[in-house]
Amino acid sequence: MRSKTSICAVIVSYEPDEALIRLYESIKNQVDEVLVIDNASGCKKSKKILQDLPGEVKIIYNDKNYGIAKALNQGARYAIENNYKWLLTLDHDSEFLQGTYNLLLQSYKILPNKEKTMLIAPQYKEKIYLKPANNILISGIKNIIWKKQNFIITSGSLIKTEVFKSAGFFEEKLFIDKVDFDFCFKLTQKGFTCLIASNVYFSHQLSKPVIKSGIKSFNYPPVRRYYIARNSVFLFKKYFFYSPFHMSLTLLRSGIFFASVKILLFEKDKLVKIKNTYKGFIDGILNKY
Description:
By secondary structure, this protein is an alpha/beta fold. It folds into two domains: 7-204, Spore Coat Polysaccharide Biosynthesis Protein SpsA, Chain A, CATH 3.90.550; 210-285, no CATH class. The protein is 39% helix and 21% strand. Strands 1, 2, 3, 4, 5, 6, 7, 8 and 9 form a nine-stranded mixed β-sheet that branches. A two-stranded antiparallel ribbon has the order 10-11. Helix 7 packs antiparallel against helix 8. It is globular and about 50 Å long.
């Protein structure tokens, strides 16, 4: 029988680079097992990186790219079948300070209403903004500042495996983008709590942002512009009556207008990105998944 703090880390990979090695080195001593779900990486460099991971890392090679949601579900079911108490979900472009999750779990033990808290996580900072002063692990579990969040990104999220039975798994029809958003809202809608340690940081690279005149655009590739727009419509329709403000804001930010303006002002490949944004928006309205 595993301990009450046993953690299975699942890393979803697709054409990983050396960042996967750095992630593994940062997390290997903080968890009981590391599982990599690879979505059919094809390039030689990525295959070599996966092959060179230590033997204790279990790797599941999918026969095609099934998207992040299905890969996360594969990891969740593996963790449940092997009696892990916690699932740590990770993207390969994150890094963590040693002791991060021991600190969070020790603090979790003294949380009020911890029975309802099903997801805890440190606060991410994009690598280009992470200052050395922020990259120091705080001392003392009572110094952690916990905040309720409606949305916590996939990478770094520590999820109690018991919650999948009552709340369900990740939404596979979304493929990529907004999968984490949907899961967090699913938990809160069920009456569970998601908490973020707002003063415990890890580094994460969301994209390759473009910053001009103090305005940041995430500079997502064209294919992601499609999924961001389509899945924003999905969330709007699913959760509007539960959280109208957040859903309206999500649709405004990720839908046609604001996304198109930022693409036009700051990004390359403008035409194809705007075209994909509009196509995703229309497919979301028409329920094409």
